[in-house]
Amino acid sequence: MMKKKIIHLSLFTSAFFLISCGGGNKASDESTAEKKEEIETFVEKEFTYPLPTAFEVSQMLSNANTTYSPEIVNDPANSDKYIATWQKAANLGVYGADLSYAATFDKTQETIDFLDVSKKLIDDLNITSAFNESMAQRIENNMDNVDSLIFIVTESFYDTYNYLNQNGEEKTSILVIAGSVIEGLHITCELVKMSENKGELMAVLANQKAQVDKLVELMENHKDDVNVSKVLPNLRFISLTYEQLGEGTEMTEGQFSDIANSVKEMRDHIVG
Prior knowledge:
The chain is mostly helical. It has helices at residues 32-46, 54-63, 85-104, 108-124, 133-141, 146-155, 157-166, 170-194, 198-206, 209-220, 232-242, 253-271. The chain contains 12 helices and no strands. Helix 2 packs parallel to helix 8 (170-194), helix 8 runs antiparallel to helix 9 (198-206) and helix 8 packs across helix 12.
């Protein structure tokens, strides 16, 4: 079982079925700043965050003056072709990252679509025993308030992590994390290709090296698992391509090409 301190906010996609929302209306979310500080204080005491969150990656992209590009996310219709457990778990993470990306750029319908397909995969994976329908409703009620949306998602991480691990689903949680990390890398790479501001976006990509290394470390603990073994080799290769950066955040065109190609190979393997 993974240690409690190792938690990744991309697991928010599974969190829809975990949190007790206590009414979940807009009025209760108006005190977002105060409640956010309370949650952050709680989380600070319980965990360290070794990986950037899906929302944090999206915020970095937003701060780099990028825009939402629908052609680079995973079409929700693709969910019907995911049959194997590892595909469903990894793509739950993929759609979670896409949800964060859409929400960050105020894409209401897209956010709802990714929320719906995430719920479908949660059902398919049979990890819905604690699902609380008010979570989805609360998210929909706060589509126009990114800060509230982030808070609602953050609020559920502790219960998500505990549920998956206490119910013997630690390997599932790792696969969800992997899908989210890879989709974040994919979105960043594609935006670099489309942007004239490549330097700043390459720095965002370089800053994701640590999460790749940490994810490899987590997955190595379960390398003999049949589902984990479906994605670990590709992830190792991505980590290897990142090694050429050293400790810096600057990246040459050639280094970017190597990383982008390795990310594309793994993302294609997951998304199909």
